[in-house]
Amino acid sequence: MQTDKVRVLFVGDIVGDAGRKIVIDSLDYLKNNYFYDISIANIENIAGGFGITKETYDYIEPYFDAFTTGNHVWDKKDIVINIDNMPKLAKPFNMPNTKGKSFVIIEKNNVKILIATFLGRIFMNPVDNPFILINQITQNPELPAIKVIDFHAEATSEKQAFGWYCDGKVSACLGTHTHVQTNDEKILPNGTAYITDVGLTGCHSGVIGFRKDAIIDKFITYMPTRFDVCKEDLRLNACIIDVNIYNGKAVNIEKINISST
Prior knowledge:
Blueprint lengths: L4 E7 L1 E2 L1 H19 L3 E5 L11 H7 L5 E3 L8 H6 L21 E5 L2 E9 L10 H4 L1 H4 L7 E7 L3 H11 L5 E5 L9 E2 L5 E3 L4 E4 L8 H10 L12 E11 L5 E10 L2
Parallel strand pairs: 1-3, 2-11, 3-4, 6-7, 7-8, 8-10
Antiparallel strand pairs: 1-12, 5-6, 9-10, 11-12, 12-13
């Protein structure tokens, strides 16, 4: 860790066993080339492409400091039973009446970092307003100055609006959910690192991590279709953020797109 900065690795949505493979295979490369201090990953799709189980959590847990989630977090019944035994996992903050941690605080070299997940509301199932509830984190002086927010949302307009709203209040506002890495990483004027979508960690030969034939067929027929994780063209999408440890302001953001081949 640099004396005045902390470097954070954030890995975009890990999808199924293909995503688990590429992320673990890539960690040595990432550590040796990006020298990050803290590692975070979105794992809401880690169990077969939809949801989280205790088995998949335990598999990935040793490799990261914290995990964010999303709208698929409750897809597997197993997590309802076991989420209290997943101490690194941040459930969606704006689902307050559910089990699990509303945020995770980790500490490395005497530097504390808060990690939280917020869900968008456009084209998504109903949740509480993230623009209002984010203030419970940003206006609490007892919480760490360094705050990394995963904004898991569908609409790019909502993501951009939330990023601007969070500017200067959090260290990073990183979009997830749409599984397509965007080209708009930036430091906003008041020191918040922003990207509309970090991207997908898993198969890039299909549609958002799943076999393309089944999804194309659903668009043609609109019949119920099973979506299976695809296995080819494995890629890891992520970003690196450098944050000033004294004021919590981001000073750099860099997106990552690496292949297993």
